[in-house]
Amino acid sequence: MDDEHWAMSEATEVAQTVRPDAQVIGADNYIKALEAARKERIDIALLDIEMPGMSGIELAKRLKEIHPDINIIFVTAYSEYALEAFSVYAAGYLLKPLKKEALEEALHNLRNPVSYQSGKLQIQCFGKFEVFYNGEPVQFNRSKAKEIFAYLVDLRGASANTGELCAVLWEDSKEIEKNRHYLRNLIGDIKKALRKCHAEDVFLCNRNQFAIDTNKVECDYYRFLKQDVSAVNSYRGEYMKQYSWAEFCVKPLE
């Protein structure tokens, strides 16, 4: 974010110099920043404290609602906001003008280290459920297809059959044959979405059994269960919050 002391383009230039292989997205106001966060997986956000329309502290809170494990680094001319900044679990607090050395040090000491492996599906369960491939959202043609995939992720490699998936999606619906037919279309949607990012081998189908190959994905939930510190720190009590059935999966995490 820019003000009279620090233009957004300058911050972008420093970030690109420090991390030439990273995708750097510039946003000169909070609206564009939130739009970018909804479209892309954002691992690190450089924010100013004082901005028009919304404070950097409030923007940090909004960004964490979208990506609970995002690293917030404040870059500001005001040292007096440091305590408030760390109340939103900031990964760094740098004073202007932004120096490459200072940013490099902050990136080496992130609160939530960026550890996603290129070439693997990256799955976010904490907060809203999202799936990414090389930083780009995986597009499912139907929301129900994405929900099936989420349910299988929650099973951690265990299989679910057609009847179980139909019960999850449509609960007490009596239109059994209609639902089974639609489910076949949803399975096709999942295969198509994964094929586009060359990850079709993640989805295991064997007659009437469906599962996820957990060894071929990078998932915050799975890392949490292995006591990975960054995953534990990223959990804020919300798990796949757009799905009602996921409410019953929260207690084991706490």
Short description:
With 254 residues, the protein is an alpha/beta fold. It is built from ten helices and ten strands. Strands 6-5-4-10 form a four-stranded mixed beta sheet. A three-stranded parallel beta sheet has the order 1-2-3, sandwiched between helices. The protein has a three-stranded antiparallel beta sheet with strand order 7-9-8.
Broad structural category: alpha/beta
Strand order of the largest sheet: 6-5-4-10
| Structure summary, number of beta strands | 10
Mean pLDDT: 85
Helix count from the secondary structure assignment: 10
Identify low-pLDDT runs.
1-7
User: What level of helicity do the residues show?
Assistant: 25-40%
Describe the structure.
The protein has 254 residues and is of the alpha/beta class. The chain has a 4-stranded mixed beta sheet. Strands 1-2-3 form a 3-stranded parallel beta sheet, sandwiched between helices. A hairpin with a 5-residue loop joins strand 4 and strand 5. Helix 2 packs parallel to helix 3 and helix 7 crosses helix 8. The chain starts with 7 loop residues before the first helix and ends in a 20-residue tail after the last helix.
Pick out its properties.
single chain, 254 residues, alpha/beta, 4-stranded mixed β-sheet, 3-stranded parallel β-sheet, 10 helices, 10 strands, disordered N terminus
Topology:
Blueprint lengths: L7 H11 L11 H10 L4 E4 L8 H11 L4 E6 L5 H5 L5 E4 L4 H9 L12 E4 L5 E4 L2 E2 L5 H12 L5 E2 H9 L5 H21 L6 E4 L2 E4 L4 E3 H6 L3 H6 L20
Parallel strand pairs: 1-2, 2-3, 4-10
Antiparallel strand pairs: 4-5, 5-6, 7-9, 8-9
